[in-house]
Specification:
The structure is a single chain. The protein is α+β, with helices and mostly antiparallel strands and 134 residues long. It has helices spanning 2-9, 55-77, 95-100, and strands at 18-21, 29-32, 37-40, 87-91, 112-116. The chain contains three helices and five strands, in the order H-E-E-E-H-E-H-E. A three-stranded antiparallel beta sheet has the order 1-2-3, with helices on one face. The radius of gyration is 21 Å and the shape is globular. Mean pLDDT is 79; it is low at 119-126.
């Protein structure tokens, strides 16, 4: 099976992805970007084999990674003392309800809650030549 994925990997142009079934249960998928192979699946409670994150979880992971990287980039550019970033996301859709109502307008509206854990940032500034205050 990996040989087949490798065959597809060589066809993936930069900025694109290829998704193909793995044959591992009814929902198992391989996600290829030309450099990495990730797996996706559905949980056993809805008939999958739980061989990887489900599509909602993959979406949340992507958004969380983007948020964390953006915070790191901003802190670095502004020389802020950011030690660690943790982003928690939650998607409120329920798989069975989503599948049952996927054609309705209400089902097409997503709500994703995003939050970053707060941390104390101690920034002290002084005027040139002035003594630092505690």
């Amino acid at each position: 099976m990996v040989d087949r994925w490798q065959q597809y990997q060589s066809t993936v142009a930069p900025g694109t992805v290829v998704v193909t079934d793995t044959g591992e249960g009814p929902f198992g998928q391989a996600l290829l970007d030309g450099r990495h192979i990730l797996k996706a699946d559905e949980p056993t409670t809805v008939g999958g084999k739980d061989g990887g994150p489900n599509p909602y979880e993959l979406l949340l992971m992507s958004l969380g990674a983007c948020t964390s990287m953006t915070l790191r980039l901003y802190a670095t550019r502004k020389a802020l003392p950011l030690e660690h970033v943790v982003v928690r996301l939650r998607h409120s859709k329920v798989h069975a309800e989503d599948c049952a109502n996927c054609e309705t307008k209400a089902a097409m509206i997503d709500r994703i809650d995003r939050g970053t854990l707060s941390a104390k940032i101690d920034i002290r500034t002084t005027l040139a030549g002035a003594a630092a205050s505690p």
